[in-house]
Design a protein that fits this description.
Two copies of one chain form a homodimer.
Chain A (H helix, E strand, L loop, with lengths): L2 E2 L5 H7 L4 H6 L4 E4 L1 H9 L6 E4 L1 H6 L1 H9 L3 E5 L1 H7 L8 E5 L3 E2 L10 E5 L5 H13 L4 E5 L8 H7 L8 E5 L1 H10 L3 E5 L5 E2 L9 E5 L8 H4 L4 E4 L11 H25 L3
Parallel strand pairs in A: 1-4, 3-4, 6-9, 7-8, 7-12, 8-9, 10-12, 10-13, 11-13
Antiparallel strand pairs in A: 2-5, 3-5
Helix pairs in contact in A: 7-8, 7-11
Chain lengths: 274, 274
C-alpha cells in the first residue's frame, strides 16, 4: 500500500488549503473533519466525506469506519503521520482527517414551524459557535443561525466543538439581521434576547411559546440594530460576583430553560389528550 | 522613560517562565494575567500583581489601572510590544500582562457550610476549567474543586476563560478524591454526579439541598473511583441527537438548575418568616 509522504501531493495540498477561511471559501465551503467521532457523525447523517486521509495505524484501528467512508464514495488515502498532523488543528486528530462538503445553509432552510431557534449575532469565537451548535442539538433546537459578520461555523475549532452536531440540525450562516428578523416573525417566533445587564430575568419571558433566542457578541453584547427589534431582553439570575457567563455557557443555559418549559407544556397537553 | 526591549531582561525572563506549567510550579504558582479586565478583577479582589508589564501605549490608555497596581505594590515596567506579545497566550493582550501570586487553595479552604460546590474530576481542558470557574462564580457557588490529575486552573487559557472569577471564590486544586469525598460529606453536601448516560434526569436529585456537583473528564466521563461514592448520578434531559454537552456547558446548566432550586427554597423560607 502506498503511503503519501510528500507535502506537495495534490490530495494533501488541497486538503491543507481548507485549514484557512479563505481556502474554504475558495473550495466552495468544503471543510475538514478531525478524528473518528466527527467522521462517524457525518456518515450517520448521510453526509459522507469526499476524501478521507488516514495514517496507516489509524486506518487499521478504524477499518470499519474507513470502509464505510469508501462505500460512501470517499477517496481514501494513507498519509504519513507528520503530514496528517499538519492538517489538524488538534494536537491529537487520532490519525484521521476527512474533507466534507459545506453544511452551511441559507435563510430558506429555516424550518417552517420551528419551536426553538438559537441565533448568534456577530459571535466571533469559533469554539463558542461550535459549542452552541452542540448544545442547540442536545436540547432539540430546530436550527442555529449565525448572522452576517459572525465566525465561520466550519472553522476547524468550531467543527471540533460542535462534535458532530453540525450534521444534525440546519446551521444557517451569513444571514442579514433584517431578513432574519422578518423570517423569525413570519414563523410566529417570540424574539428573546440575552443580556447580562437586562432588567428582567428569564422568568419574565414566555419561553414556553415558540422562541428564538438571540445572543450577541462576546465582547460587545447584542448589536443595537438587533436589540431594538426584540420582544424581550432578559438575563439569567446571577447570585455571585461574575457579571456574566461565557457566551456558549449562557446559550446552553437558555436553551435548557426554554426546552424545559416547552416540554413541560407539551407533556401537559399530551396528558389531557390534545 | 525606559522601555525594555531586550528579551534577556530579568523581569521579562522571569515573567516568560510563567507561560509553562513547569515554570509556574518552579515560581511557587505565580501566574500571568492578560489584559485590563483580569488585572482589574485581581486588584478589586485585593490580590494585587507583583509585576505589571505594559506597552507604552497601554500604560497611557490604562493610566488609572497602572497607578492602582503601583499603589498596590506592583513593580511596573514598560516593555516593547513584541516582548509583551511573547508573554501572552491571547493574540490581543491589549498591551498589559501582570504577574500575580497563586490563588490555588487546598482542602482546608473548603468553606464550613457550603450550599453549592462544583467539582471537576480529572478535567483536562484549561478553557473548560476556566469557564466552569466563571459559571460557578456567576451562580453563587461557594467553591470550585479540581481534583488531582485535573488541568492547572492557572494555565493561561483557564485564567482567560475564568475572566476574573479566579479571584472571587475559593478554587481548590490537586485534591485527592477520597479526602475530598470525606470533606464534602462532613459538610453535609449531597454528592450529585453528572453523566449523559445516567438513567435518571436532574429531576430525580434533591438539588434544593446543599449539593456538590461532580463532573468527570471530557473524554472518559466520571472516574469509577469517584462515581461509586456518589449519592446520585443524573443527566440533563436531552431532546435532540447530540449525546452530550461540552463539559463547561453541562456544568453551567447544572449550576443554574441547582442555584435556581436552592434560591426558590430560600425565598419561600424568607416569605414565611423563617
Amino acid at each position: 500500500v502506498d503511503v503519501i509522504s510528500s507535502s506537495s501531493n495534490p490530495t494533501v495540498r488541497s486538503a491543507r488549503r481548507l485549514v484557512s477561511a479563505r481556502g474554504r471559501r475558495g473550495a466552495g465551503g468544503r471543510f475538514l473533519l478531525e478524528g473518528p467521532e466527527g467522521i462517524r457523525a457525518a456518515l450517520t447523517a448521510g453526509h459522507p466525506p469526499t476524501v478521507l486521509l488516514a495514517t496507516e495505524a489509524a486506518a487499521a484501528r478504524h477499518a470499519g469506519l474507513v470502509n464505510q467512508a469508501r462505500r460512501g464514495g470517499a477517496q481514501v488515502a494513507l498519509v504519513a503521520e507528520r503530514l496528517l498532523a499538519g492538517l489538524a488543528d488538534t494536537t491529537t486528530p487520532q490519525g484521521l482527517v476527512a474533507v466534507v462538503g459545506s453544511v452551511a445553509a441559507g435563510l430558506d432552510n429555516l424550518p417552517a414551524r420551528p419551536r426553538l431557534v438559537c441565533v448568534l449575532v456577530e459571535a466571533r469565537d469559533p469554539g463558542n459557535a461550535g459549542t452552541v451548535i452542540r448544545a442547540a442539538d442536545a436540547f432539540g433546537a430546530d436550527a442555529v443561525v449565525l448572522t452576517m459578520g459572525s465566525v465561520d461555523a466550519e472553522h476547524p475549532r468550531a467543527v471540533r466543538a460542535a462534535a458532530g452536531s453540525l450534521f444534525h440540525l440546519p446551521v444557517l450562516t451569513g444571514v442579514a439581521w433584517p431578513a432574519l428578523r422578518d423570517a423569525l416573525r413570519d414563523r410566529g417566533l417570540c424574539l428573546v434576547g440575552a443580556d447580562p445587564h437586562a432588567a428582567d430575568t428569564v422568568a419574565a419571558a414566555p419561553l414556553h411559546q415558540p422562541t428564538a433566542l438571540i445572543l450577541g457578541n462576546e465582547a460587545h453584547g447584542l448589536a443595537a440594530a438587533a436589540r431594538d427589534d426584540l420582544d424581550f431582553v432578559v438575563r439569567l439570575p446571577m447570585h455571585g460576583r461574575a457579571e456574566s457567563l461565557n457566551l456558549a455557557a449562557a446559550a446552553a443555559v437558555l436553551l435548557y430553560e426554554t426546552a424545559n418549559r416547552q416540554w413541560t407544556v407539551r407533556r401537559k397537553e399530551a396528558a389531557v389528550g390534545r
